[in-house]
Amino acid sequence: MTESNKEEVIKFSPIEEAIYDLMLGKIIIVVDDEDRENEGDLIALADKATPEVINFMIREARGLVCTPITEERARELNLRPMVEKNTDFHGTAFTVSVDHASTTTGISAHERSRTIKALIDPEAQANDFRRPGHVFPLIAKKGGVLRRAGHTEAAVDLARMCGSSPAAVICEIIKEDGSMARVPDLVKFSLKHNLKLITIKDLIRYRNEKENLIKREVEIKLPTDAGIFKAIAYTNE
Hints:
alpha+beta; seven-stranded mixed β-sheet
């Protein structure tokens, strides 16, 4: 079956509907391409990451719960890369794991929720966190899915589209037998739990259609023998 035929059979949700559900505090499923990880992640906004949301991810998705954040936020909290040389196949940018200082073991859904909320608290400082811990921040590349078509970037892009803190909570979906859930499994999962299902490919298309990615950066006037020459520089995100 070709990719186009698959898209005809499997109906993914519109990006707008996924954004709306995220804003309501709901969880969605995001799928990447078959030639990449070919996996689905649960995604929720970091500022909506209640203990109930975390517990659902742990219980139903079974993967590693991570918190995508921006490069700027990682610098503010002195969250350094987990390793000096990243040899992950897709360059997933893990930082050192953390627990908020107010937690005990840090592993419960309630305490992970508290740590995640602290990561987006503008008043939080680097020394408010213990290292290592049970929450795994991931650094999203600037430019989002237009730079790297990963779940980390998709999560932060979606958070921005919702007008929320540019951070999220994600968790890979694993089947009961321990194998990774693929698109047919993810469709069943989405129907069982009434969750919107979108693709990173559609998110890239949505951003390209909706956003003005060309920005005027600087203008310079230069005197020449023929008169004033105006040079304008633009950047393309």
